[in-house]
Amino acid sequence: MQCDNNxxxxxxxxxxxxxxxxxxxxxxxxxxxxxxxxxxxxxxxxIRGFLMLYFSNPQNQIGFMxxxxxxxxxxxxxxxxxxxxxxxxxxxxxxxxxxxxxxW
Length: 104
Description:
Blueprint: H1 5-17, H2 22-30, H3 34-54, H4 58-66, H5 79-83, H6 88-99
Helix pairs in contact: 1-3, 3-4, 3-6
């Protein structure tokens, strides 16, 4: 499976909006085989889509990812810091938490 270049570009753009450095973008998204890049791009775009759904203000859509979150899972870290670990399981969990924010 090959990652759609448009999807990859959109995911990189989302990470840039969330203040990710080129090195961090590499660690979160690009340092992986194409099939895993595709999964990672999916989760990043899913996070972006749900943030757009939950927040009408673009500043909040971006701000959520860079602000420290004191709920138990985030433990005082920002979502971008967590996904910046490069762990696919953490990226999936952050996507799940964002997806389920409407239920809070």
